[in-house]
Design goal:
alpha/beta; globular; about 210 residues; Rossmann fold; binds adenosine-5'-triphosphate
């Protein structure tokens, strides 16, 4: 069965680094990918743009294609968005369908700080996306939990519901939302780092301009 892959993040703002790795992961895994913006990320400072503004940017970014979709459930929930809760909810909705959590290499190294992180492997596979500039040193604890879970053959992910780990070598694009926010605050125009749709409506990037 075609896996459903979830790519979570703050998307503050969504940029071409996110979209290109999500797209490539969809192709490499032969999976549907949904982008899932987080409301109150437990691990980091709050986003600069509001939930509604981030959704508007994501909608503009995803226009014209249907392979990448948007799921706003975490924004509709009150309190922090814990990935484990989202995956448990999706498991109940999707039955036996394989679920896969897509995480950038930087975020993956920080997995042991996530709420009930060990349980993630009970409900989903994990796909780690290479990210330039990230020399991810994995803690002993994380190494222990992932030992024996690594697979290279994508078809395994289509035949099992959860519990495997795959590394996805995607085209490196050294783009970060932090850098884009800095450029916008300086009055610069980071046109080819962001999806073109974000420039169609001048209000979309207003939260970052000083
Ligand atoms: P910030 O600079 O604000 O920390 P970010 O660019 O890292 O933001 P997030 O929304 O925090 O974006 O990222 C969501 C997910 O996307 C994370 O798993 C992150 O590792 C991954 N990601 C973001 N940018 C890239 C990129 N250029 N290449 C690969 N993965 C990326």
């Amino acid at each position: 069965m075609k896996p459903l892959a979830i790519f979570g993040g703050t998307f503050d703002p969504v940029h071409l680094g996110h979209l290109s790795v999500a797209w490539e992961a969809a192709e490499l895994l032969d999976a549907d990918v949904c982008l899932m913006p987080a409301s109150v990320p437990p691990h980091r400072p709050p986003p600069m743009a509001s939930a509604a503004q981030r959704v508007a940017m994501l909608r503009a970014a995803l226009q014209g294609q249907s392979r990448l979709t948007l799921d706003t459930r975490e924004l509709e929930r009150s309190g922090p968005s814990y990935t484990i809760d989202t995956l448990i909810e999706l498991r109940a909705e999707q039955g036996d369908r394989p679920l896969l959590l897509l995480i950038g290499a930087d975020a993956f190294a920080g997995l042991p700080s996530w709420h009930r992180w060990r349980e993630l492997f009970e409900v989903a596979h994990v796909g780690v996306l290479s990210r330039p500039g990230v020399e991810a040193e994995l803690s002993d604890e994380l190494q222990h939990v992932i030992s024996g879970r690594r697979v290279e053959d994508v078809s395994v992910l289509h035949h099992t519901m959860a519990g495997k780990l795959i590394e996805l070598a995607v085209t490196p694009l050294e783009i970060s939302a932090t850098r884009i926010r800095e450029l916008l605050a300086e009055g610069r125009d980071p046109r080819y780092l962001l999806p073109a749709g974000l420039f169609d409506d001048p209000g979309l990037l207003a939260p970052y301009r000083s």
